[in-house]
Amino acid sequence: MIDKKMLRIYLIALVVSFIPIVFAIINGFVDNHANDNFYKLPFGNTNYVHQLFFYLFAYLIPYLAIFLGYALAYLAVRLFCKFSKFSKRIQFVGYAQTERTGKYLKRRYLIQILFAVLLCINIWVIIVDNDFLMQFWLTQAGLDHMLGPQGQYFNFVFVPWYWTPIFLTALVFALCSVIMDSGLVSVKKLSGQSEFSDTERVGDKLFSIVKGYAGISVVLSFIILIQSPKGNETSLVLFPIFALCFVLHVIVAIDLFRNIGKKWVFKASKRYYEPQMIKLSFDKTEISNFKDLLN
Q1: What DSSP line would sit under 235-285, residue for residue?
Q2: Cα–Cα distance between 20 and 58 in angstroms, integer?
Q3: Domain count, the chain
Q4: pLDDT of the residue at 250
Q5: Which residue has better confidence, 178 or 29?
Q6: Is residue 66 part of a domain?
Q7: Is residue 287 part of a domain?
Q8: 17 and 248 in contact (C-beta within 8 Å)?
């Protein structure tokens, strides 16, 4: 059952995500090379048609990535459960559910959108730095026109690769989000201790790794690209904006279809553990001073 509130949020994000496509349509009317053929595609014979395809492809392909991410989550959880079953230090204990309040969703979306955009930009920069990839979709006419007088790529060279970072970002965030939403909880036994401690949700640990990589690597990668002649000033501004537009509807879609992925996660763990719901309590107790915390 799809939540109506979630559906409204998704439709708003969907409308915003059309901005790059509207830009492509407008650009097609003013581009002097709109009727040329710079791209290798088996249909159409103009840049205008081909660029519209690449933008639409970047818009639609993340939905395939979402369900592939759910499938990878199934495999990851199954491997984790199998490993924890034989491990003396890690034990899977059940599922902890978080109340989905408006405040929680707002914070969740802001964090995920921020780091999804950073990861998306970072993957794009890695592609831009690879000469072979950047030339892959171009015809001979495209190759002849790809570089400016100072060795920088013209904007049309970037367009065929817009879908790749968005696809990979959707894949990674679908994988992380569905494991987080499942509430999979494990406890780890610290070295030299007789009892288990250090309880954590598996999805939180996985997402923290993604955040760490996206947050640090994108800064370094972007600095390198800016200093390189390949960095076209217009694209350096346009793609981050496009990444934000595309990521908005993807992040909400991942949450919208989360129950499908959660079923796969539960199925992956069912073979190894009986389902258990963990209720987390955060009751407050007044204390007279900090010494009471030592008892």
Answers
A1: HHHHHHHHHHHHHHHHHHHHHHTHHHHHHHHHHHHHTTS---EEPP-----
A2: 10
A3: 1
A4: 93
A5: 178
A6: yes
A7: no
A8: yes
